[in-house]
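Protein chain data
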Amino acid sequence: MKNVDQNTITQAVLERMGEMPDARLKTIMTSLVHHLHDFARDVALSEEEWMQAIQFLTRTGQTCDDKRQEFILLSDVLGLSMLTVAMNNQKPAGCTEATVFGPFFVEDAPKVALGGDVAQGAPGKPCTVSGRIVGTQGQPVAHAQIEVWQADEEGFYDVQRPDLSASQARGSLQADGDGRFHFKTIVAEAYPIPTDGPVGDLLRATGRHPWRPAHLHFMIKAPGFETLTTHVFRNGDQYLESDAVFGVRESLIADWVEQPDGDTLLNFDFVLNESNA
């Protein structure tokens, strides 16, 4: 098609992709082109604004490395991450809800025995975490694999500290035969997501704060059950109603109970959904 204009270019692009062999990719790309073109027409996108968007996305990619995923952070603050999680994790009543993965998960976290110290020297007040992993009928999920990670009291994950030579405040452990687990760590504190990159620029430009309420990340896997990626949030945190990444769910808020000896106790049970696979 020659001489396309603002009204005919969308159809021209779609026709050019008409022979796409992958049906799912064709569905995605057709909708994407429709929405992108409609968006540009709706806001009367200028060439200067288009170039600013290209530069923003370029800087977002350049900020990513093996320890920081700025594109996940961008998806988080736009609500896309939580939307995708919600659409793909509709579980039966009673199952523990999923929430955002976040940009700071690391593969091959240190192995920690039950009762061991996940903090490994990370700054913060001591905390003991315990609970049980069960299925929807209350049956124990024996020997479930648990990945746990969190920020320290200064609001940093270990991967944000270039001076560290070993992991801190993250670990991999296994529940016992009754699905029970317990470990030592530090009390979670509210923290701001990184604002030294393009996502921070976006938050400032849109008048938004970067804070996340205090939470502990969990990823739990067991044969015969769907993998659960979630948080446990600290009750009473001032940012529960305005989480920068929209990840809070009422069912994931728990009491972190300070003890006379200075320790804080968190007890939380997880209910996994049986897999259909």
In short: Residues 1 and 173 are 60 Å apart (CA to CA). The longest strand covers residues 126-134. The chain is about 25% helix and 20% strand.
